[in-house]
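Re-run with default settings, no changes from the original entry. Doing this only to confirm the output is reproducible before filing.
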Amino acid sequence: MTALTAHRLHFAFSIVYHYLFPQLTMGLGLLIVILKVKGFRGNVAAADSARFWGRIFGLTFVMGVVTGIPLEFQIGAGWSRFAHATGGVIGQTLAMEGVIAFFLESTFLYLFLFGEKWMAPRTHVAVAVLVMTGSWLSGYFIVTTNAFMQHPVGHVVGADGVVHLASISEYLGNPWAWVQYLHTMTGSVVTASFVVTAAGAFYLLQDKHVEHAKVFLRVGVIAGVVATIMMAMPTGDLHARLVAKYQPVAFAAMEGHFHTEDGAALTLVGQPDVDRLRLDNPIQIPRALSFMTHQRWNARIEGLTAFDPDLWPDNVPLLYYSYHVMVGLGTIFIALMASSAALLRKGRLFHPRARPLLWALMLAAPLPYVANTAGWMTAELGRQPWIVYGVMRTAHGYSANVSAGNTLFTLLGFMGLYALLSLLFVFVAYRIFASGPGPLVTTPPNEDEAPPPDSLEGPPAPTEGIA
């Protein structure tokens, strides 16, 4: 194994594991705000639910911090030439993410988790909004950094090969960043909505915390049906058009389109054969790819053979399958959430006959993680062989003095450490889900008056606890 391959595997593992956590917190921040608003308007179960998901948010946030900080050190250690060449540009948004977004989110998360007992309800709702704002700002700064690597703007390249920032407004206003950001944040809402509905389905199937479970399902399904549709249209469609315009070779590889064609078909299923430059066993919709890309049935779509093979993504089959896994799962998400929303509107989602759908919602919880990971793989594999598209090749960006053996040794260490962190995360999350949502307690209850664990009966919570 070459040092370049080892460095790529190391960073790929670290960032894929890390992103398991922010994609939940960013979407969950929005759902917590919705629950807090419902609680502020008098829905006690929604207030309890916001408190419950706040604990999950806090746990997930800690995991995101622990696994995110090493990534910036990895850029310097494993990709020193890339850091040297582009640090004056990407360092701007990475610093903004740490100084502005991270501190905003972490500060107000502490107040959200521990300040409800002494805050006015309206103030606590505002704190929830600020937590969400911090998490979404963090997402924007990171996505803008990646968007520069996909579609570099607002820069100049010096005679020494170092990239300098020429326009901060152009850099922050990168059109690729805005579309990618909307698509990424919508994906995080999809993840959060599936996790929340899965928890609601789990409790409802066990006949525990029934009122809270219904709140989980109502909020999760409504947010989920909107987000899953938005993932396809307009955000997914806009993102695909950007790729077709600025990275046509990546677009051809994603679609398994080997030969230039007028009126190109959209491939639903097929296996790319790079050696023979063809798709095996394809199932296609005639002319649909041309229409979806250019709104003309006979529009020309360039194939991979129209480009120099040195510019092809270095793993066309993996790119193709990643893209189609993302799209296929997205289609399933729309169908599942739309079916749930239809039953919810008719008042049948909580009926015993809907148990199969509740099982489907519960078991589908891991799938958005797969889809989001496949989406990021599509973006990163499609950008190859460039680390900054059209500016710097990946082969010129890694740390040449760090050997493959050293990199693999640290990769094994990261895997072991993250395995332990995963066990700790699962243990704490299990404890939170086992205890379930409950009312805010400001004083120890009298044992004779304490309600049963799964009941909403009993003395009302203090007024300041109903946020």
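The chain has one domain: 3-260+302-442. Strands lie at 155-157, 163-165, 261-262, 266-273, 278-285, 300-301, 386-388, 392-393.
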